[in-house]
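User: I'll paste a sequence; please echo it back and then give the predicted structure.

Assistant: Echoing your sequence first, then the prediction.
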Amino acid sequence: KSQQKPVLIKFPADWCTNCEVVDRFVFGRKDIAKLLDKKGVLAIKGDTTKASQPATIDLSNIYKEPGVPVTILFLPGETEPVRLRDLFFADELKAMLEKLPDKI
């Protein structure tokens, strides 16, 4: 964030069936993967499989999210992140990514 680069944090859990749906229908799309690379998005997986994992604690304490799946996208110049909680948000994510400048 301090470098004014987009950051995407995906919060899944191994036991979460809906997380598998998001992986397949959003992050499994080649066009989304290409855009993440083209736009220089730092993509982070915050594994929340166990309650004691740092990502699980951060999801609740820092991001005030009740559970998974959730994807948080920090866009340069924006003070609040975009929170994507639906299962099929690929088109919404694609539209946001397309507006970003290409990485240098």
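DSSP finds four helices and four strands in the chain. The beta strands are 7-11, 42-45, 70-74, 82-84.
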